[in-house]
Amino acid sequence: MEQILHTKEGEDEESYAKNSTFQRLVFMNFNHALNRSIRGFCQANLAEAECIRVADLGCASGPNTLLAVESIIDSINRECHNLNILKLPNIQVFLNDLMSNDFNSIFKLLPSFYQKLEESCGRGSMSCFIAAMPGSFYGRPFPDNSMHFIHSSYSLHWLSQVPSGLVTEEGLPLNKGNIYIGKTSPKNVHDAYLDQFDRDFTNFLSARADELVFGEHLFVTLAPKIDDPVAYNVQDLLGMTMIDMVSEGLIEEKALDTFNLPHYRPSLEEVKAIIEKNRALKIRYLDTIQLRYRARSLRATYEPIFQAHFGEGITNDFFTKLAANISPHQGKMKSPINSLVLSLSRT
Ligand SMILES: C[S@@+](CC[C@H](N)C(=O)[O-])C[C@H]1O[C@@H](n2cnc3c(N)ncnc32)[C@H](O)[C@@H]1O
Predict the structure, then answer these.
(1) Has residue 144 been placed in a domain?
(2) Whole domain around residue 134: which residue ranges?
(3) Known InterPro entries for this protein (predicted)?
(4) What secondary structure letter does DSSP report for 339?
(5) Average pLDDT over residues 93-110
(6) Residue 153 three-state SS
(7) Any alpha helices (H) in 181-314, and if so which ranges?
(8) Residues 52-92: tens digit of each pLDDT
(9) pLDDT digit string (tens) for 191-236?
């Protein structure tokens, strides 16, 4: 799963780098909350800090990757100024994603990024150190008590694996005709997804609690579930497009029945319950905002995982049909789409 779960690399028209506007919009809308979280951290720590260690988990590759980093560095600089701290602390930034992420494209952006920092705030590569830390965030990319601020945007709804409970004891598919939790999915499909999310999110929180210095901050955005029985969500439309292709003979029914997205959109209550059960981190701030999706950003997000299951041959056809399917349903799509922001600190 870790080999295929990544956004579409490169810089062509369909790449994630060119199609991450939605995630950018989410980021811009939550920037005030991110700044507030950093302000809290700075007020408690800046007077003594010599080096602030920051991580961005699930950074992908594209313009958004450095957007979050830039905003975090900007906020720290501003707080130094507000607190009359003349010697800026060093900042070490770790960009984390799966091993298959296109880290090389990010490295190519670094010279101009350092130059921009130098020009805007006199901080270049001598006081800000950006490195990659590949590996799953469900594991432990960082040592104990080493990180001051951890950020993760729109990545946590990717599960570590397809839930194991999606087949019967006889090995038959439980979620026929769906690729995620659909309107016709039986209850045990929902339970299997929730169970996997619970395990993954619990591992994520425990790992961050070990990595964060006592009292320090974790800031997360993700796409939550919306309970609206009439509206479609993005995954419904992906599934409907697949079914059309089965009826046209372009995809085998068996291939569709054995395909399930390793993706889960939790409800606000599910997220809260898992955090409260874990206890190592406490909620400082929780909010939702509403935005819209575009078909092209779906391709940049889902293409690698579709290609791995169905093969390269149908990819173009699939995403063209998906775009055509989205237009008539736009009104019924969960629009605007919710996004959830969470600011936590280590207790
Ligand atoms: C939709 S992108 C979001 C990227 C970026 N943070 C943004 O806001 O535009 C999700 C990213 O999470 C990464 N990801 C998924 N599961 C992961 C895991 N277990 N560990 C680290 N990264 C993961 C994917 O490879 C992908 O780059």
Answers:
(1) yes
(2) 21-346
(3) MeTrfase_7, MeTrfase_capping, SAM-dependent_MTases_sf
(4) E
(5) 93
(6) strand
(7) 187-211, 234-247, 253-257, 268-278, 295-310
(8) 999 999 999 877 789 889 889 988 888 888 888 878 889 99
(9) 999 999 999 999 999 999 999 998 888 999 888 876 655 555 667 7
Write down the pLDDT at residue 197.
97
Q: How many domains does the chain have?
A: 1
CA trace torsion 89, 214, 270, 136 (10° rounding): 60
Q: Which residues contact 324 (CB under 8 A, 6 or more apart)?
A: none
Residue written as token pair 């409260």: 276
**Would residue 11 count as lying in a domain?**
no
Q: Summarize the confidence of residues 244-262 as an average pLDDT.
A: 86
Residue 111, in any domain of the structure: yes
CATH number at residue 315: 3.40.50.150
Ligand 1 pocket test: pick from 2, 158, 302 the residue with the most ligand atoms within 8 Å of its Cβ: 158
Whether residue 32 lies inside any domain: the answer is: yes
Sign of the alpha-carbon dihedral angle for 295, 174, 156, 315: negative
CA distances from 75 to 20, 41, 79, 112, 257 (A): 23, 11, 6, 20, 48
Mean pLDDT, the chain, whole residue set = 83
CB 163 within 8 A of CB 260: yes
Q: Which atom of ligand 1 is nearest to the CA of 160?
A: 19
Terminal CA-CA length for the chain = 32
The reply to whether ligand 1 has any atom less than 6 angstroms from the CB of 154 is yes
What tens digit of pLDDT does each residue of 304-347 get?
778 778 777 777 787 777 777 776 665 555 444 678 889 999 88
How far is 330 from 326, CA to CA, in rounded Å? 6
Smallest CA separation from ligand 1 atom 20, residue: 136
Q: Which of 229, 345, 254, 339 shows the shortest CA–CA distance to 290?
A: 339
